[in-house]
Amino acid sequence: MPSLKILVGSQNPVKVAAAKEIFTQYFPEHTLDCQGMHAPSGVPDQPLGENDTRIGAENRVKHLIKHHQADFYCAMEGGANQFSYGPATFAFVVISNGKHTSIGRSCNLPLPQSVYDKLLAGEELGHVMDDLFNTENIKQKGGAIGLLTNHLATRESSYTQALLLAMAPFNHPELYNK
């Protein structure tokens, strides 16, 4: 079987599992070596706004490309924003093969205003949710998504969907690389 090396710009097991899942789906005939690696985001630990969140994911992938060799590099960066319709959390995902890069975004999870206000005050979403729901390290488990959807969706499922969609340019390079 041919093999693929995939590097994930995080050691968070949720992010590594999401990447492994989508690459397994897209490359079922390959043996995968999917590893999480430290890669700095260059943005605050709790990015606020779409730009900082996207830039954080891009920076993680750029770091991996600069320092490591792989077939694919990917990163997921969770952020939050105050939209005109209310606060929400979301993630940007970036996938690169070193030559071409694709950027995707997850769906929004509406946040209570009180939670978003704590993010504005400098707290991280995972810590706020741990305090609210009496959990420990929820960001490496189901995340705020799991807690607020009664575990019908999870942080991993949100990342998986965004990564699956971000793979489109790699499936049809003749359409995207013109």
Question: Which terms would index this structure?
Answer:
single chain; 178 residues; Maf protein; 8 helices; 6 strands; 42% helix; 24% strand
Q: How would you describe this protein?
A:
The chain has 8 helices and 6 strands; from the N terminus they run βαβαββββαααααα. The longest helix is centred in the N-terminal third of the chain and has 18 residues, at 50-67. The chain has one domain (3-108, 154-172): Maf protein. Helices cover 42% and strands 24% of the residues. Strands 1, 2, 3, 4, 5 and 6 form a 6-stranded mixed β-sheet that branches. It has helices at residues 13-26, 50-67, 113-120, 125-133, 143-148, 155-166, 168-171, 173-176; strands at 3-8, 31-36, 72-83, 86-96, 101-105, 109-110. The chain is α/β, with parallel strands linked by helices and 178 residues long.
Number of domains: 1
Range of strand content: 15-25%
* Residue share in helix: 40-55%
Overall CATH architecture: Alpha-Beta Complex
Structural class: alpha/beta
Q: Radius of gyration from the CA trace?
A: 16 Å
Query: Count of helices?
Result: 8
CATH topology (fold) name? Maf protein
The CATH class: Alpha Beta
Largest sheet: 6 strands, mixed
Total E-strand runs: 6
Overall pLDDT score: 95
Low-confidence stretches: none
Distance between the termini: 31 Å
Shape verdict: globular
Q: Name the helix and strand elements from N-terminus to C-terminus, one letter apiece.
A: EHEHEEEEHHHHHH
